[in-house]
C-alpha cells in the first residue's frame, strides 16, 4: 500500500511537466525506438496501477536532472539513519512508518544493527534554487555498509555514482573506515560532500571534526554540513548540496545503450533481478540485451527503479539507476561488474570491478552428517544473493562431506552462517577459519593451501619456503593508547609503516601485518586495550615469506583433520597449548580417558587429558515406573546428536568453531 | 552415524485403548505380518508379544508415611508423628479415617478393574510399596489381599512383598501380616549412622533399625531385603563401608543399594547439587558404588541388577517382571501399570485419584491407559530394562523380534566399549566373546552376530556405573 501512495504522490508533480518534456524528447531524438516510449508510458507490472493511471514517468529526468550518490562512513556513524530521513523528506517512505534503518532488510542486518548489503533507493525531489523556478530531480541514493569486510560493496556502489556523502560522527570524529572510504571515493574521482552527523549528542564536537576533515582530507571547512539524522536538524541542506555540488551523470543519451551491472539478487517470484546503472543510451521493456562477459542475450521482461521497492517504469534513461528482469535463471549468469548493451550493437566494455579477494576460508559441514544435500541446496541458493562467497566441495574424515568456503572476513563468514540458518533452516558446523597459504617443496612444486588438512603433516619432500598473505592496516586511536597498540601490533608480527598525529589527541597508525594475525581476534583485542576508542581498517597487500608449520590436533592418538591449523613457527607452541586447553573445556568427559595432543609432524608440542566419566546411572528405578527414567535417556540420546564422533570421542558441534578464538 | 551402517526399527502399530481380547488379537496379527518367518514360529515367546498376555503381578501403593524423607519425591501422604501416643506402633490406627478411606478407594479400584483376557491366570507376585505399607493396619491389608484374590486369584506360593520402615512395626504386627500371606519384607534401613538418618529426615534411628531386624528374624521371615542409600550428604567412605558391613552381618538374603537421586522439589533438591559438598563428589560416589559391589559380592551376594543383590534363589520375583518387560497391574495413588503394552500412571493427588476411581466405576475412565503401542518404544524399553540386569540383552530374542540389522547396529556402536571393557559379550554358554572377535563379526557382511554373541551385558561395576550413557547410545540406533 505504501508504495502506491508514494507513486501517486510523485505523479502529482510529474504530470504537469510531462507534456513539455516528452515533446522535447520526441523532437530531439532520431532514434526510432522513441515511439516505443509512448507505448511504454503507462506501463506497470504492478496490477494495482491500472493502465489509465500512469505511474512514474522517467522521461522528464534527463541527465542534468539526475544525481547519483552513495552514503559512506565508518561503521555506525549513521548512514542508514540518514538514508531514512532523506527518503522521508522526499516522500519515498512515509514518516514514522516502517522500521528504522528501512533499507536494512535482511534479518541479520536487523538483528545486528548493521548494514551488510548496499541498497539503492530512487527518490524524487523538488528543488528550489534561489529565485529559479522549482524543478524536479531524480536522486539515486545508495546506502553502503560500514564494516571493513563489506568494503567491496562500497566500491561497487561508488561505480554507479558521481558523488558521495561522507558521514562522520560528530563525537567520534574521523575513524579508520572514514579514511578507507574517503580514499575509495576520492580515487574514483567522486565529488565528496562531507556531513557531520549526530550533532545532537552532548559529546558532539563538530569543530574538532571539521579540523580533522581539513587536515586529513583537505576538505574545506565551509563545505561541511552539520546534521542530526536523529532529530532532523540541518537536514534541509543535504539534498540541495547534493544537487548543487555533485555533477549529473556524464553519459551520452544518444549513444548506444551501455549499462553497468553492479549487483544482482534472486527473487522467488521474478527470478534474477539485476541492478544496473545506465551509462549511455536508454533501455525499454522488451529490448534485447547482451552481457559482455557471459556473452548471453536476454529479453528485458521488466525494468524499473527501486523506490525503494521494485517499481516498474518500462524504461531507464541515461544516468538512471534501476533494475531489470530477464529470463535469467541463476545469478551465476549475472557477473557483477559486467557491461550490458543492446544486442547486435558494439560498445566499449566498461572497466568493471576487480575480482573480490577471499581473506579467510573455512569448512562448512552439515551438523547432521546425512543432510549434505540440504546444505548443498541452501548454499547454492544463498550464493545467488551473496556472490562474494567462493564455494568448493571438500571431504573431511571427521565431518564427512561439506564445502570449503572463501569469505571476505570473519563478519562476512558469520553473516553467511547466520543467513544459512535463518533463511534456509540449515544447521552447520564450521571449521577453524584459515587464510590461504603457499608452500614450496624441495622438488620445486608449490602448493596453495586453503584447508590446513590438505597440507601433508609428514610430507614426502621437504618444505623449502612458505608464504602468507598480509594486509595494510589503518588504526586510529587516542594517543594515550599508542604504547599498548604498538605492543599488540608487534606481538602480531606487524611492521610499522606510518605514525602521525591527526590532531592533538588522535593518532593515525599504519602497519603491515600478516592477515592470519588480524583475522580472528585482533579487533577485539584492540578494542579491549583501548577501551573501545580505536578503529581499525585494512586492505589486502602482497604475500610475504614466513616460517609456517602445520599444527595437528590428535584425540587419543588420532589426528582430527577438521581441527588442524597452520601457524607461524614461533607461535606454534603457544597455539598448540591454547588449542588443547580450549578443546579440553569443550569436550565433555567420555566413558574413557581422552588424550588431547597438539603435534607438528610427529612431534608432540602440547598435551592434556580429560579423565573418564565416573558415574552416570539412575539406580532408583522404582515400582515399575520407568517413564521418567526413559525420558531422561531419550534426552541424553538427543544430546548425543549434537556431537560429532571422531574415532570414539564425541565432540560437540560448537567446539569446531569456538576453538577458533585462539590467536 | 552413517545411514548405511545403522538401521533403526521403523515398525509401529496402533492399538485400541482397552485391554480387550480384541486388541490382543489385533496386536498379534500385526506383529505376525511384520516379523520374519523365523520369528513367526516363536511368536508366542517373541519379545514384541510378551507384554500382551494377562499380567500375573500386581503393585499396590500404600502411601502413608509418618513424615516425608528429605530425598523423597514419591506420592505419599504424611500422617504426622503423633505425640499423644507413647507407642509408635499405633500410629497407623485401625480407625484412622485417612487410612480406612484410602483402602476403601483402593478396593474399589481393584474391583473396577475388569479384564477380558483369554486366560485368567492367578497372580504370582504382589508388591506392597509406599509410602510405608507397614503403617497400614493388618486388617486393612487383609482386605486388599482378599479383594485381589477375588478379582484375579492368587497362587498359593505367590511372592507377597511389603516395604517396612524401622519403627513402624513390632513382632506382633509382622506376625499378623505374615499370617495374611506376606512372605517377603523389604526393610528401609538406608544407613547405619544416626547422623545420616537424621540428615535424611528419617523418622527412626539406628536402634530402631536393630529392633526391626530382630522382629524380622524372630518372626522367621526367611525372605527379606534391606534398602541402603549411598552418596548421602556427609556420608564418607568409612561410613558407607560400615553400613555395608553391618548390613552383611544382619544376613538379609537380598540387598537393594540405591545411589541417592537428588530430585527436584525435594528438600535435598533445594539444598544440594550432585557432586558438590556436602554430597560426595562424582568420583567418591562412583567409589561407593564399586565398594558396594565388591563387598556384597565378596559376601556371597549376586549382583543381578544395577541396584539389587541377592543370595541364592532370593531374587525379587516381582522386580524381575519389570526387568523382563512383562505386564503388571498397579493399584493406588500414583502407581504405574503396564498392561497390553501401555504404560499408565494413576493420578498422584488424592483428590484426582478419588475422581479417577469413581470414573473407573461408572465407565468414564479406563484402567490401562490409552494410546498406541509403538514397537520402537517396546524395543527401547527392552534395551533399557535388559541392560539393568546382569543377564543383559538377549540378542537372539531381540533379533527375532526386531531384526538382525538392528542387532548389528547396536554391536557397532558398542564396539569401542567392548574394547574398553564397559560391555561384555557372551555366547550361548555365557562364555565371554573377545573384542577382536566382535570387531570381525561387526565388520563381516555375512555373519549374523547373534549366532555368535548371544548376550550383551554391562560390566559390573564399570559398565553399570555408566549405564545411562551406554543405554542412550543404544537408543540412538534403535530409535534414532
Ligand atoms: N544521537 C544520534 N544517534 C544517531 C544519529 N544518527 C544515527 N544514530 C544512531 O546511530 C546508530 C547507528 O546508526 P545506523 O544508521 O545504523 O549507522 P550505519 O552507519 O548505517 O551503520 P552500518 O551500516 O552498520 O555501518 C543507531 O543506533 C542510530 O539510531 C544522530 O543523528 N544522532
Ligand atoms: C518407596 S521408597 C520408601 C519405602 C519405605 N517408606 C522406606 O523408607 O523404606 C523405597 C526405597 O527407595 C529408596 N529411595 C527413595 N527415594 C530415593 C532417592 N531420592 N534416591 C535414592 N533412593 C531412594 C530408598 O532406599 C527406599 O527404601
Ligand atoms: Mg547502515
From TrEMBL, chain A:
Entry GO CC: mitochondrial inner membrane; mitochondrial matrix
Protein localization: Mitochondrion inner membrane
Recorded catalytic activity of this chain's protein: GTP + H2O = GDP + phosphate + H(+)
Membrane topology of the entry: Peripheral membrane protein
Naturally occurring in which organism (per UniProt): Capsella rubella
Pfam families: EFG_C, GTP_EFTU, GTP_EFTU_D2, LepA_C
Positions of GTP binding: 73-80, 143-147, 197-200
Keywords, sorted A to Z: GTP-binding, Hydrolase, Membrane, Mitochondrion, Mitochondrion inner membrane, Nucleotide-binding, Protein biosynthesis
Protein task: Promotes mitochondrial protein synthesis. May act as a fidelity factor of the translation reaction, by catalyzing a one-codon backward translocation of tRNAs on improperly translocated ribosomes. Binds to mitochondrial ribosomes in a GTP-dependent manner.
Principal location: mitochondrion
Every Tr-type G domain range: 64-250
Any one GO BP annotation for this protein: positive regulation of translation
Stretches that traverse the bilayer: none
InterPro entries tied to this protein: EF-4, EFG_III/V, EFG_V-like, EFTu-like_2, G_TR_CS, LepA_C_sf, LepA_CTD, LepA_IV
Protein name (database record): Translation factor GUF1 homolog, mitochondrial
Entry-linked NCBIfam families: lepA, small_GTP
GO molecular function, one term: GTP binding
Family listed: Belongs to the TRAFAC class translation factor GTPase superfamily. Classic translation factor GTPase family. LepA subfamily.
Listed EC numbers: 3.6.5.n1
Automatic annotation (TrEMBL), chain B:
Gene Ontology biological process terms in this record: porphyrin-containing compound biosynthetic process
A GO term from the CC aspect: cytoplasm
Highest taxon above the source species: Eukaryota
Coiled coil residues, start to end: none
A molecular function (GO) term: 4 iron, 4 sulfur cluster binding
UniProt domain Radical SAM core: residue ranges: 50-299
Matches recorded under NCBIfam families: hemN_rel
Primary role: May be a heme chaperone, appears to bind heme. Homologous bacterial proteins do not have oxygen-independent coproporphyrinogen-III oxidase activity. Binds 1 [4Fe-4S] cluster. The cluster is coordinated with 3 cysteines and an exchangeable S-adenosyl-L-methionine.
Family: Belongs to the anaerobic coproporphyrinogen-III oxidase family. HemW subfamily.
Protein name: Radical S-adenosyl methionine domain-containing protein 1, mitochondrial
Amino acid at each position: 500500500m505504501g508504495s502506491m501512495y508514494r507513486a501517486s504522490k510523485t505523479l502529482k508533480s510529474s504530470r504537469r511537466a510531462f507534456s513539455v518534456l516528452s515533446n522535447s524528447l520526441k523532437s530531439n531524438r532520431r532514434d526510432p525506438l522513441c515511439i516505443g516510449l509512448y507505448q511504454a508510458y503507462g506501463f506497470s507490472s504492478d496490477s494495482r496501477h491500472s493502465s489509465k493511471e500512469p505511474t512514474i514517468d522517467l522521461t522528464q529526468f534527463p541527465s542534468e536532472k539526475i544525481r547519483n550518490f552513495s552514503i559512506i562512513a565508518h561503521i555506525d556513524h549513521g548512514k542508514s539513519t540518514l538514508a531514512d530521513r532523506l527518503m522521508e523528506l522526499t516522500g519515498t517512505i512515509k514518516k514514522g512508518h516502517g522500521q528504522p534503518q528501512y533499507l536494512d532488510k535482511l534479518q541479520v542486518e536487523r538483528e545486528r544493527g548493521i548494514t551488510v548489503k548496499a541498497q539503492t533507493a530512487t527518490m524524487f525531489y523538488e528543488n528550489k534554487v534561489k529565485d529559479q523556478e522549482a524543478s524536479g530531480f531524480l536522486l539515486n541514493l545508495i546506502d553502503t555498509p560500514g564494516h571493513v569486510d563489506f568494503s567491496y560493496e562500497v566500491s561497487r556502489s561508488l561505480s554507479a555514482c558521481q558523488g558521495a556523502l561522507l558521514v562522520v560522527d560528530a563525537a567520534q570524529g574521523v575513524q579508520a573506515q572514514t579514511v578507507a572510504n574517503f580514499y575509495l571515493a576520492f580515487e574514483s574521482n567522486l565529488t565528496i560532500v562531507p556531513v557531520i552527523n549526530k550533532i545532537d549528542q552532548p559529546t558532539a564536537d563538530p569543530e574538532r571534526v571539521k579540523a580533522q576533515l581539513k587536515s586529513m582530507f583537505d576538505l574545506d571547512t565551509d563545505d561541511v554540513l552539520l546534521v542530526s539524522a536523529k532529530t532532523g536538524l540541518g537536514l534541509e541542506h543535504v539534498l540541495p548540496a547534493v544537487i548543487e555540488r555533485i555533477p549529473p551523470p556524464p553519459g551520452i543519451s544518444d549513444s548506444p545503450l551501455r549499462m553497468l551491472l553492479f549487483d544482482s539478487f534472486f527473487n522467488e517470484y521474478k527470478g534474477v533481478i539485476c541492478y544496473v546503472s545506465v551509462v549511455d543510451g536508454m533501455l525499454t521493456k522488451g529490448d534485447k540485451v547482451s552481457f559482455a562477459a557471459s556473452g548471453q542475450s536476454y529479453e528485458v521482461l521488466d525494468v524499473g527503479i527501486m523506490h525503494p521497492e521494485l517499481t516498474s517504469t518500462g524504461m531507464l534513461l541515461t544516468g538512471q539507476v534501476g533494475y531489470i528482469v530477464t529470463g535469467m535463471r541463476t545469478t551465476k549468469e549475472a557477473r557483477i561488474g559486467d557491461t550490458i548493451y543492446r544486442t547486435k550493437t558494439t560498445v566499449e566494455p566498461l572497466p568493471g570491478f576487480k575480482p573480490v579477494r577471499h581473506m579467510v576460508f573455512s569448512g562448512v559441514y552439515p551438523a547432521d552428517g546425512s543432510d549434505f544435500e540440504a546444505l548443498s541446496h541452501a548454499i547454492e541458493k544463498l550464493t545467488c544473493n551473496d556472490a562474494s562467497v567462493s564455494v568448493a566441495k571438500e571431504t573431511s574424515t571427521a565431518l564427512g562431506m561439506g564445502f570449503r568456503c572463501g569469505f571476505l572476513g570473519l563478519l562476512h563468514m558469520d553473516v553467511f552462517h547466520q543467513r544459512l540458518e535463518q533463511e534456509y533452516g540449515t544447521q552447520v558446523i564450521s571449521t577453524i577459519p584459515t587464510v590461504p597459504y603457499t608452500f614450496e617443496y624441495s622438488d620445486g612444486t608449490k602448493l596453495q593451501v586453503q584447508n590446513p588438512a590438505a597440507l601433508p603433516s609428514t610430507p614426502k619432500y621437504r618444505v623449502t619456503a612458505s608464504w602468507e598473505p598480509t594486509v595494510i592496516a589503518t588504526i586510529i586511536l587516542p594517543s594515550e593508547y599508542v604504547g599498548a597498540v604498538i605492543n599488540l601490533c608487534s606481538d602480531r608480527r606487524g611492521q610499522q609503516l606510518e605514525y602521525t598525529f591527526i590532531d592533538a589527541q588522535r593518532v593515525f597508525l599504519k602497519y603491515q601485518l600478516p592477515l592470519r594475525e588480524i583475522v580472528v581476534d585482533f579487533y577485539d583485542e584492540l578494542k579491549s586495550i583501548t577501551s573501545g576508542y580505536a578503529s581499525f581498517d585494512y586492505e589486502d597487500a602482497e604475500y610475504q615469506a614466513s616460517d609456517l608449520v602445520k599444527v595437528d590436533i590428535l584425540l587419543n592418538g588420532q589426528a582430527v583433520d577438521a581441527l588442524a591449523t597452520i601457524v607461524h613457527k614461533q607461535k606454534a607452541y603457544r597455539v598448540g597449548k591454547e588449542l588443547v586447553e580450549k578443546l579440553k573445556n569443550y569436550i565433555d568427559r567420555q566413558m574413557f580417558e581422552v588424550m588431547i595432543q597438539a603435534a607438528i609432524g610427529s612431534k608432540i608440542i602440547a598435551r592434556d587429558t580429560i579423565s573418564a566419566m565416573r558415574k552416570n546411572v539412575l539406580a532408583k528405578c522404582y515400582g515399575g515406573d520407568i517413564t521418567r527414567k526413559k525420558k531422561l535417556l531419550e534426552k541424553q540420546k538427543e544430546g548425543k546428536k549434537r556431537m560429532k564422533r571422531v574415532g570414539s570421542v564425541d565432540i560437540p558441534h560448537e567446539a569446531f568453531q569456538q576453538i577458533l578464538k585462539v590467536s | 552415524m552413517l545411514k548405511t551402517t545403522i538401521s533403526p526399527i521403523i515398525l509401529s502399530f496402533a492399538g485400541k485403548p482397552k485391554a480387550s481380547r480384541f486388541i490382543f488379537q489385533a496386536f498379534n496379527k500385526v506383529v505376525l505380518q511384520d516379523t520374519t518367518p523365523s520369528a513367526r514360529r516363536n511368536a508366542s515367546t517373541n519379545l514384541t508379544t510378551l507384554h500382551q498376555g494377562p499380567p500375573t503381578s500386581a503393585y499396590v501403593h500404600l502411601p502413608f508415611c509418618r513424615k516425608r524423607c528429605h530425598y523423597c519425591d514419591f506420592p505419599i501422604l504424611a500422617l504426622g508423628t503423633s505425640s499423644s501416643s507413647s507407642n509408635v506402633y499405633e500410629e497407623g490406627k485401625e480407625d484412622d479415617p485417612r487410612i480406612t478411606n484410602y483402602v476403601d478407594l483402593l478396593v474399589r479400584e481393584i474391583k473396577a478393574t475388569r479384564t477380558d483376557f483369554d486366560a485368567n491366570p492367578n497372580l504370582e507376585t504382589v508388591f506392597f510399596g509406599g509410602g510405608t505399607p507397614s503403617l497400614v493396619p493388618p486388617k486393612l491389608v487383609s482386605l486388599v489381599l482378599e479383594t485381589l484374590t477375588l478379582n484375579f486369584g492368587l497362587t498359593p506360593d505367590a511372592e507377597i512383598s511389603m516395604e517396612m520402615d524401622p519403627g513402624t512395626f513390632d513382632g506382633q504386627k509382622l506376625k499378623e501380616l505374615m499370617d495374611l500371606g506376606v512372605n517377603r519384607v523389604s526393610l528401609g534401613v538406608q544407613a547405619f549412622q544416626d547422623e545420616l538418618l537424621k540428615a535424611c529426615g528419617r523418622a527412626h534411628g539406628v536402634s530402631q533399625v536393630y529392633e526391626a531386624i530382630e522382629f524380622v528374624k524372630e518372626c522367621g521371615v526367611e525372605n527379606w531385603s534391606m534398602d541402603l542409600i549411598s552418596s548421602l550428604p556427609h556420608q564418607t567412605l568409612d561410613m558407607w563401608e560400615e553400613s555395608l558391613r553391618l548390613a552383611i552381618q544382619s544376613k538379609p538374603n537380598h540387598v537393594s543399594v540405591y545411589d541417592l537421586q537428588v530430585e527436584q522439589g525435594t528438600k535435598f533438591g533445594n539444598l544440594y547439587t550432585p557432586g558438590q559438598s556436602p554430597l560426595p563428589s562424582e568420583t567418591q560416589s562412583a567409589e561407593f558404588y564399586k565398594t558396594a559391589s565388591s563387598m556384597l559380592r565378596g559376601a556371597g551376594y549376586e549382583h543381578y541388577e544395577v541396584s539389587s543383590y541377592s543370595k541364592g534363589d532370593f531374587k525379587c520375583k516381582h522386580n524381575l517382571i519389570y526387568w523382563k518387560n512383562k505386564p503388571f497391574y498397579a493399584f493406588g495413588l500414583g502407581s504405574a501399570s503396564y498392561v497390553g503394552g501401555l504404560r499408565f500412571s494413576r493420578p498422584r493427588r488424592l483428590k484426582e485419584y478419588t475422581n479417577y476411581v469413581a470414573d473407573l466405576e461408572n465407565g468414564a475412565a479406563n484402567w490401562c491407559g490409552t494410546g498406541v503401542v509403538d514397537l520402537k518404544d517396546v524395543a527401547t524399553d527392552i534395551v533399557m530394562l535388559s541392560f539393568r540386569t546382569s543377564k543383559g540383552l538377549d540378542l537372539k530374542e531381540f533379533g527375532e523380534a526386531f531384526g538382525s540389522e538392528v542387532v548389528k547396529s547396536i554391536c557397532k556402536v558398542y564396539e569401542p566399549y567392548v574394547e574398553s571393557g564397559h560391555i561384555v559379550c557372551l555366547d550361548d554358554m555365557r562364555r565371554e566373546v573377545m573384542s577382536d572377535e566382535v570387531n570381525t563379526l561387526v565388520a563381516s557382511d555375512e555373519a549374523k552376530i547373534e549366532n555368535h554373541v548371544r548376550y550383551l551385558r554391562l560390566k559390573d561395576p564399570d559398565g553399570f556405573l555408566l549405564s545411562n550413557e551406554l543405554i542412550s547410545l543404544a537408543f540412538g540406533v534403535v530409535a534414532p
